[in-house]
């Protein structure tokens, strides 16, 4: 049954991603012959999200080109941006989300790509709307796409889950997670308020903060990759979740379910870029072309479970077939094309709004702590008092014993 659902999932994905490039005659060829040792001895510094690539491809790339990959990861777009701007390290490849690509373009922090070194661009689905973040299509190439929903453990969450509102349900206090980045967290609140994710109205962002403050006492924590262990183990019961993370987790815990929020959600594209700090631009473009090889894209997708923008990869027999889909909700979601029809795409905010969001995020993180912190502190206080009482009792007993043994003889 699961294999059948996986096959149907493929069909749903293919329906969402028109194969225009493939229809025009673009086909995958044995990619090994496309590469030379022109840049042998070069080291590329690749900076990417955690759990977001099949690292075994690095060895294959080095064998083909002689180019070594030095790989490191970040947890959020914002942490990547901070390190990039600080200038403490030089990166040749980064893979930010759409709105962050737009911000980096606006701040002149990205190199224009030389498409003559990236002929595999022909496999990129032309229906993906990259103009929202890269209007001239010069600075980036899509790596994956996906959307945000709600993942929950059906073993513990037995009431119907419909969307983001369930993340405020007091019945799950202490078992609720949320994302550890400002843009996603505030988008969840804006969704509940029926507001635009890209609003420039300070009152809207303040309203979102007020709503998030109501939620904070219910939270177990703000997390990134920790969501895997917490949701798979049952330590947490419900959380907002990228669809690819859900597909990875459900393999390890078939009790997990995924719901596309009734309030709507964020549809995103993550894209490969070369920052201005790169010292190996040409070699980096060879690496980008390698990532776009249909067979390599297939390996990546079947490792990380996000959706591919590569039209040839999406037609391959093994695309997503190893995924064990535990329920039909995601299948129906894809067949209905809900993410494309209802999803909002993040845009780069104006500098003033971006600054305001950063300040509101700090305010939220510094505001009154959640119940679980109080529970830990309270437990520690009770333990300390108990130990103090025990010590006093022991001391009195020791004094009494001393008095009985030595007092009379004295």
Give a short overview:
By secondary structure, this protein is of the alpha/beta class. It has helices at residues 2-16, 20-23, 56-65, 77-86, 98-106, 182-193, 202-215, 227-233, 243-250, 281-291, 294-304, 329-335, 338-342, 351-366, 371-407, and strands at residues 43-49, 68-74, 93-94, 141-153, 176-179, 219-223, 238-242, 256-259, 267-272.
Describe the structure.
It is a single chain. 43% of the residues lie in helices and 13% in strands. By secondary structure, the chain is an alpha/beta fold. It has 2 domains: 18-145 and 268-329, D-Maltodextrin-Binding Protein, domain 2 (3-Layer(aba) Sandwich), CATH 3.40.190.10; 146-266 and 349-371, 3-Layer(aba) Sandwich (D-Maltodextrin-Binding Protein, domain 2). Helix 6 packs across helix 7. The chain is globular. It has 15 helices and 9 strands. The chain has helices spanning 2-16, 20-23, 56-65, 77-86, 98-106, 182-193, 202-215, 227-233, 243-250, 281-291, 294-304, 329-335, 338-342, 351-366, 371-407; strands at 43-49, 68-74, 93-94, 141-153, 176-179, 219-223, 238-242, 256-259, 267-272.
